Structures are given as structure tokens and as C-alpha cells.
Amino acid sequence: MELDSFAQTVKEIEAEIARVIVGQHDVIRNTIICMLAGGNALLEGVPGLGKTRMVSAVGQVLSLEFKRIQFTPDLMPSDIMGTNIITEDQDGRKFFEFQPGPVFANIVLADEINRATPKTQSAMLEAMQEKTVTAGGKTRNLPRPFFVLATQNPLEMEGTYPLPEAQMDRFLFKLMVGFPEEKELVDIISSTTASGQEEPRKVMGGEQVLRMMELAREVPVSERVTAMAGRMVMATHPESTYAPDSVKKYVRYGVSPRGGQALIAAGKVRALIEGRYNVAFEDIEALAFPALRHRFFLNFEGEAEGINPDLLIAEIIEAVRDKE
User: Fold this and answer.
1) Picking from 135-139, 215-219, 263-267, which range would have the lowest pLDDT averaged per residue?
2) What are phi and psi of 227, to 5 degrees?
3) 3-76+102-194 sits in which CATH class?
């Protein structure tokens, strides 16, 4: 696949998703970047903003096997991963047979993931990182490609549980789904209450997705750009010399090395979409917000003052840029 073809294919994907989702252009673009970088995405927003519909549309456009799991407080790990059940052969002999759960799909929508208990949430850790499921003492590979696209409601809403830190770190991006503008809201109401609603058409299949992912991994990254990504991660740690004063004041734990990996992997995809075969500083800066906002944790003072992680990331970008 050539550079021009890569960018054109992404535009076609976005156009098809836009047929059923009004607005949210940045969320759609970043979801595609996240998937082509081989990562999982967490979409946060209040109910009713079309998060679930968008993920469903992505599955239709990419022609990938799509399964939806509704997370609830009584959901058990076996409801997600599958379990061994007793079956009987023609001779009447009984044996255990593994019944795969809904996680065995190309795109898994973990809907309202923070409504399940931490025990059930943690059952997703192996699937999200290693792309495997271990049950009954046997490890099974998940289909390729494999993506988890999860939605969650803001934590201040009733009936939600905070995601474990280890699980948050396994999401390549955290995307904030905002409330639509007035014109977009009118368009949403009109399109969803009319007859004959449009459906997105297939743009490509799983093999082409894998080829695009492989092409993205081949994009070169200069040492200076990699160093910038590393400094940006270091700047989230209060004890670092790169950390701005706001980080030293409000942050308890900084970003793990996965944050730097996310910046580079996603930066390669963004570079191809922008028509470049090299990662630039602007790619790292543009992706810092979705790649880092969920990876560091505020201290008591930061929580009490309601500090927005995006404000800290903006100051981190400036601090790193000044030391370039």
C-alpha cells in the first residue's frame, strides 16, 4: 500500500462513519489512528452522545467481526472470556469443551466498562495486552486484528467504578466525547427521527487493516523525535527536571513507558494520514492529549482543586518545547 493510498483510505473510512455520526470529527480520526497503531481506545462522555453507535459503525466500515458486551455490576469474567462446559460425544462419554465468550472477535465494544466491578474489569487485561485468553489452564489466541473500544460514563455518575490503573494504561488513547454544537444537535435530531436512516458501507476488510498497521510500523522516526516523546513522558513525573511547576504541585504518579510507546506508534499513523513518511514534532504534540491524559494520577491537592489533566499536558508541551 502506497502513501497516497493510505491517506485516501482513511478519508473514505471517515466519510462513511460521518454518514451516521454527526460531528465528533476529532474523535473519529483519533479512533482510527488508535486502531491502526494496534491499540485500544477508551471513549468517555455522558450517555446519549453516540459512542456506541460510532464503534458499531467502525466495525461495519472495516468489515470486521464485531461483538458488544454490556458491562453491568453482575457481569462475571466468564461472561466475557468464555468457560469450559461439559459436553457428551456420540458414545456417551463426557468431556470439557471450551465455549468462547464474546471477547473472541475483531472489535469488542466494552460498553459502559466502568459499570462492572474491578474483578470483571481486570479480566480484560490479558486480552488487551497480550491478545490472548487463558481459561482452564490453556492459552488461546484472539483473532487478528483485535481491538477493544470501550465506553465509560464520567466517574461522578452513580453506579460506576474507577478502572484499575493497570487497565487504564492498556488503553492507547482516551478520547473525550463532548456535547454537540447547536447545529450538530439539530442535525442529530433530524437524522435519527427520519425514516430510512443511512448505514455505512464497507471500505475494507481485515487483511487490509493488517497491511495498513504493518505499513505504519515501518515509518521512520528520528532520534530527536523519539527523544522528545521521552522528555514528554519524563515531564509528567514530579521529580523530573523537565516537569513544569504545575506537575510538581498536582501530580502523584507520572506516565509509564507505555505513554512514550503510544506517542510514537500513533505518531507514525498520523504522519501517513498527513501525507508524510516520517514522524514530526507536531505529531507528538497533537497526540499528547489522547495518549497521556489517562496515564498519570493527581495527588490529593490536584483532585481537590479539580485539575484537568489536559491543562497539565498543555503546560508539559510548552515546557518540553522550551528545552528543545
Assistant:
1) 135-139
2) -65, -35
3) alpha beta
